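Thread: quick sanity check before group meeting

JM: Hey all, I'm pulling together slides for Thursday and realized we never actually wrote out the predicted structure for the chain we discussed last week. Dropping the sequence here so it's in one place. If anyone has concerns about the input, flag it before I start.
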Amino acid sequence: MKKILLFLVLIGFSANLIGQENSKYQVFVTPNGITFNNQEKYLVIENDRSKSDQIKLIQKNLNSKHLSKHLKFDVTDDAITLTDYKPGFTKSDKTAGSAYLLDLTYKISIDVKDNMFRINAPLINISANQKYESDAVIFNKGVQFPVTMEIKGKRDVWNSKEKKMFIYDEKGKLIEKSTKEKLEKDLSDLIKIIADSTSKSTW
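JM (edit): ok, ran it. Output follows.
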C-alpha cells in the first residue's frame, strides 16, 4: 500500500513539474497586448549552443513539428523571423447579427546570441481581407469592405468602408472569447516548439 501511495505521489509530482515547465511558454492575449507567462513581451531561453546552431535547430524543429505550407523564415547572423498564415483561423462571435470567418497572419522574431535566444511576443493580424485565397473569402461572400479584428478598441466599428471588431472592448471587457482562446492555444504550442528546439534531445 505504501509503495502504491509513493508511486502516486511521484506521478503527481512529475505531472506538476511538467505543468510548470509548459506554463513558462504560455501566451496570453490581454487588453494590453500579447504577453508571456512572465508578464513580459519576450521570453529568454538559455542553452549551450552557438548562434548558428540555434538558428538551424529552430528552423529544423519548426519544419518538422509545425506543419504549415505558409511558414516562411527570414534569417540573419543573429536573428530569425518567422511568418505564417492560417486561412479561416477563427469565426467571430455573433455581433450585429452576423458572424465572420477570419484569417490569421502572424510574425515572431527571435534574437539569437551564443548560449541563448530571445523570443519576442508575436505580432498578429486577423482579417478577412488577406492577399491569399482562403475560406474567409468564400464564407464572407458579398462583403464589400475589409473585416478586421484587433485586440482592444471601441466595440463594433462598422461603416461603409470597413467593419472592425475587437477581442476586448475599450473598457477591457472580453468580447471575442473563442478567438482569444484559439490564439492562446495555438501560439503557446508554437512557442513551446521554438523553446524546445535547442534541447539535447532534438540534436
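AS: nice. The helical segments are 2-23, 51-65, 135-139, 177-195. The two ends are 41 Å apart (CA to CA).
JM: adding both to the slides.
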